Amino acid sequence: MNHKKKKIAFVIGALTPGGAERVISTLSNALVEDFDVAIITFKKSTPFYRLDDRIKVISCFDKIDKPTSVFGSIKLNYNILKKVTAIVKNEKIDLLIGFITSANIIATLAARRNGIPSLISERNDPLKKDIPRFWVMLRKLVYPKADNLIVQTEKVKTIYTNMLKHKNITVLPNPISSDLSKLRKNNVTREKIILTVGRLNNDKRHDKLIRAVNSLKLESWKVIIIGKGPNKKKLTNLIESLNLSHQIEILSNIKNIHDYYMKASLFVFTSKAEGFPNALLEAMHFGLPCISTDCNYGPSDLITDGKDGFLVPVNDQEALIEKIDKLIKDDALKALFSKNAAETSLNYTSDKVTEKWKNVINQHL
Q1: Is the backbone peptide bond immediately before 260 cis, with ω within 30 degrees of 0?
Q2: What pairs with residue 148 in β-bridges?
Q3: If DSSP states are collapsed to H, E and C, what string results for 6-23?
Q4: Are 51 and 37 contacting, i.e. CB atoms less than 8 angstroms apart?
Q5: CATH 3.40.50.300 fits 179-348, yes or no
Q6: Quick check: helix, strand or coil at residue 218?
Q7: CB-count burial class (<10 Å; 0-12, 13-18, 19+) for 122
Q8: Looking at the domain that runs over 7-175+350-364, which CATH code has it been given?
Q9: Is 190 in contact with 212 (CB distance < 8 Å)?
Q10: Could you read off the pLDDT tens digit of each residue along the chain, which spans 365 residues?
C-alpha cells in the first residue's frame, strides 16, 4: 500500500537563530518521515539549524526592506500573502502551519484562499503590550478562521480562550532538538561557570544576573552569557562599569551550544517574560542545576521549585542572589537538581512532542 504522503508546510519569516526557528527545524526533521514537508519563509535566509535534505525551503522574496509606514506594512504583507498563496497552490500543499503572529495571519488567509486547513502556533505572551495595534486587530479577526490554535502552556491557553473565542486550542510544548539530545554525555567535567542563554533584549533581563554576580563577589567563578540582540552594547557597558570584564563574557552566534551546557555548573534564567523558555529546557536536559524567575510563561511548567530547580519571583533580586549563593555552596543539592532536571526534560523529547503534533495534523487532514 503506497499512498502518497500528504504535503504540509510551515510558514515563518526566516530561518534565523531563535526558539521558534529551532522548533520548526526539529519538528520538520521528525515529521518528514510521515509527511512531505516544506518550509515557506518570507525572506531568503540560510537555515541556522540543521534540516533534513528531504525538506524543501521556499522563500517569497530574496530580501525585504523594513516598511517605514503602516501603508508600507500593509502593502508588504499583502504581497507576501499573494506569494504564499501562489506557493501553496503550485506546491499542492495539503495543510499549512503558521509560527508567530504575522506568519499565522498569512498562513490562515493563504490556507483559506486555497481551501486547505491551517494550524497556527502562538509563541508569545498574549498580554504583551508591544505588538502593533494593527496586528492585534488582525489577530482578533483572523485567528478564529484557523482550524486549530496551538499554544505552549496551559496558562496561555486560558488567556486565548477568553480573548479569541477560538474553539480549538491545543497545548503542545516545545520539543528538545533531537540533534541536541544526541550530544549529551554522561560524565562531564563541570567548571566554575554560571551560564545563561537568550536574546540580549529587555525581556531577558541579563542585567539582573550581572548585578547579582557583582553583589556575590564570586572571585573564582566565570559567567557566560550566550545570545545576540539590541542590548549588547548596554550590557557590555554595565559589565565594564562594574569592573567585571575579566569575569563575565558575552558570546554571540554560538553553534556548539551543547559544549557550554556541559561545561557550566549553574544555569540562571532571569527573564521577566517568556513564550516558552527553550534555553531553560535545554539546560535541564543537559542536567544543569537551574535557577529561573517564575515569569509568565513556562518556567513553572518546567521547574517544580526545590525539586528539579529553583523558581524566584520576577523582581526579587535578593531571592535571586540567595538562591545562586545556596546552589554554589551546596554540591549535594546541585547533584539532586541535575538528576531531577534531566528526568523532567524527558517529557519534552522530540519523539514525544512530535507524536502529539502528528495527531493534531492528522485530525485536520
Answers
A1: no
A2: 119
A3: CEEEEEECCCCCCHHHHH
A4: no
A5: no
A6: coil
A7: buried
A8: 3.40.50.2000
A9: no
A10: 557 899 999 999 999 877 789 899 999 999 999 999 999 999 999 998 999 999 999 999 999 998 888 889 889 999 999 999 999 999 999 999 999 888 999 999 999 999 999 999 988 777 777 777 888 888 889 999 999 999 998 888 988 888 877 779 999 998 998 889 999 998 889 999 999 999 999 999 999 999 999 999 998 999 999 999 999 999 999 999 999 999 999 999 898 999 999 999 999 999 998 888 989 999 999 999 999 999 988 999 999 999 999 999 999 999 999 999 999 999 999 999 999 999 999 999 999 999 999 999 999 99
Is the CB of residue 6 less than 8 Å from the CB of residue 358? no
Q: How far apart are CA 288 and CA 53, in angstroms?
A: 32
Q: Report CA-CA distances (Å) from 239 to 179, 191, 200, 228, 318.
A: 33, 21, 14, 16, 20
Query: Which residue type is seen at 85?
Result: T
Domain boundaries, the chain: 7-175+350-364, 179-348
Residues 6+ apart with CB under 8 A from 5: 34, 35, 36
3-state secondary structure of 36: strand
Handedness of CA 126, 104, 165, 158 (dihedral sign): negative
**Domain 7-175+350-364 identical in fold to domain 179-348:** yes
Across the beta sheet with 148-151, the strand order is: 56-61, 36-43, 7-12, 95-99, 118-121, 148-151, 169-171
Q: Do 273 and 295 form a contact (C-beta atoms < 8 A)?
A: yes
Burial 287-310 (b: 16+ CB within 10 A, else e): bbbbbbbbbbbbbbbbbeeeebbb
Long-range contacts of residues 46-51, Cβ cutoff 8 Å, at least 24 apart: 46/15, 47/15, 48/15, 48/16, 48/17, 48/18, 48/21, 49/15, 49/17, 49/21, 49/22, 49/25, 49/177, 49/179, 50/25, 50/179, 51/15, 51/25
Rounded CA gap, 68 and 81, in Å? Answer: 19
